[in-house]
């Protein structure tokens, strides 16, 4: 059994992991302990708010609704990657869920399907609400996802969880039947768990360049397609082109261009791809590849490990993340490549490549 961390220890753990934190109102004493138990705790649960706007979302999660008093979580993670602490103790975020899922979280084993709702989750999980409309269209920025990873890793590290697996972090949709959060372009719980597991192998302040960080704030690169599709023939690695980018204030249209990151730098890159034409059970491959200049042309120098999801639900929306290095030599740059082995061509209807990077 795990005794919940004190407010001071939660704050210290988050800051040690490199999380930007805002303490909101009287979060340290704001809870629902009068309504039920708080602890023992066993994991971290991720949600989306179904709202937009930081100030209003944070206030809602602090105060609650007429039918559900606050706090509605312990921390609100905004689009920029800041965690706003709104409660400490029991919070109305998880509700009742599947006891078999809780058993798997405690044992750090593969999660079973959630089929029942008979176990009190508010007593057992820390909860983070993340600002997102939840309509499966509102994108999840890389900075926000990185904050989810770091905040989750911070609490797992403080409790000593994650030594036998990585399922101490779950989504609301994996706990309570009928829930869908978190969802949308740029996030998947399997990716979150993998990245949390990778962080826990490093020291708390780890960053991709291997240095302990204090104020080492990464830069952001964001490209996507808009009204631009790409046909992918069978058995052929195809490079995706992106025809607009975000300059920090607005989206800027540009001629289609394949490169989404330019060296020298260390990076964490997330790629979301929406594909039409896949059949159920068909594999679709995604990877990022480093290119270098040779004889006036760019040629592939190396490729990161391929993510190969199987289209097992009749849907074609995939999200993948890689961490790596683009060297200075030969004007290196990063591109996105896809492949499939189906009988007919498929179409990439939309793609987004978002990176946090540290110039080297």
Describe what this molecule looks like in 3D.
The structure is a single chain. The protein has 360 residues and is α+β, with helices and mostly antiparallel strands. The protein has two domains: 7-200, Peptidoglycan recognition protein-like (Lysozyme-like, 3-Layer(aba) Sandwich), CATH 3.40.80; 219-359, Jelly Rolls, CATH 2.60.120. 16% of the residues lie in helices and 34% in strands. The strands form five sheets. Strands 11, 12, 14, 15, 17, 20 and 22 form a seven-stranded antiparallel beta sheet that branches. Helix 4 crosses helix 5 (189-200). It is globular. Residues 211-215 have low confidence and may be disordered.
SSE blueprint:
Elements: H1 7-16, E1 20-23, E2 43-48, H2 54-63, E3 64-65, E4 68-69, E5 75-77, E6 82-85, E7 96-97, H3 99-107, E8 119-120, E9 125-130, H4 142-159, E10 169-171, H5 189-200, E11 219-224, E12 230-232, E13 238-239, E14 242-246, E15 251-257, E16 259-262, E17 265-276, E18 284-294, E19 297-303, E20 317-326, E21 333-340, E22 346-359
Parallel strand pairs: 1-6, 2-9, 2-10, 5-9
Antiparallel strand pairs: 3-4, 5-6, 7-8, 11-14, 11-22, 12-22, 13-21, 14-15, 16-21, 17-20, 17-22, 18-19, 18-21
Pfam families: Amidase_2 (PF01510)
Protein name: N-acetylmuramoyl-L-alanine amidase
Domain N-acetylmuramoyl-L-alanine amidase: 27-183
């Amino acid at each position: 059994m795990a005794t919940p961390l004190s407010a001071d220890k939660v704050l210290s753990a988050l800051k040690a992991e490199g999380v930007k934190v805002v303490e909101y109102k009287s979060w340290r004493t704001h809870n629902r302990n009068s309504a039920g138990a708080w602890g023992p705790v066993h994991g971290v649960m991720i949600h989306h708010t179904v709202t937009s706007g930081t100030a209003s979302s944070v206030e809602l999660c602090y105060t609650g609704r007429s039918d559900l008093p606050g706090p509605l979580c312990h921390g609100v993670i905004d689009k920029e990657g800041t965690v706003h602490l709104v409660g400490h103790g029991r919070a109305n975020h998880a509700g009742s869920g599947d006891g078999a899922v809780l058993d798997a979280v405690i044992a750090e084993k593969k999660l079973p399907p959630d089929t029942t709702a008979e176990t009190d989750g508010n007593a057992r999980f820390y909860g983070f609400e993340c600002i997102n409309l939840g309509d499966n269209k509102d994108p999840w920025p890389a900075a926000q996802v990185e904050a989810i990873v770091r905040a989750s890793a911070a609490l797992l590290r403080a409790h000593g969880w994650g030594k036998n697996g990585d399922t101490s972090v779950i989504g609301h949709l994996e706990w309570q039947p009928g829930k869908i959060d978190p969802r949308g372009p740029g996030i998947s719980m399997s990716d979150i768990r993998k990245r949390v597991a990778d962080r826990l192998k490093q020291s708390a302040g780890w960053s991709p360049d291997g240095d302990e960080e204090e104020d080492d704030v990464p830069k952001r690169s964001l490209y996507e397609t808009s009204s631009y599709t790409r046909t992918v023939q069978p058995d052929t690695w195809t490079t995706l082109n992106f025809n607009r980018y975000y300059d920090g204030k607005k989206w800027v249209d540009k001629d289609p261009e394949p490169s989404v990151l330019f060296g020298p730098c260390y990076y964490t890159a997330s790629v979301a791809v929406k594909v039409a034409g896949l059949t159920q059970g068909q594999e679709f491959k995604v990877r990022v590849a480093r290119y270098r200049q040779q004889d006036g042309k760019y040629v592939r120098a190396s490729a990161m490990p391929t993510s190969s999801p199987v289209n097992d639900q009749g849907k074609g929306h995939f999200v993948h993340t890689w961490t790596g290095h683009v060297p200075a030599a030969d004007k290196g740059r990063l591109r996105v490549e896809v492949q499939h082995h189906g009988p007919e061509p498929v179409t990439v209807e939309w793609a987004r490549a978002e990176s946090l990077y540290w110039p080297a």
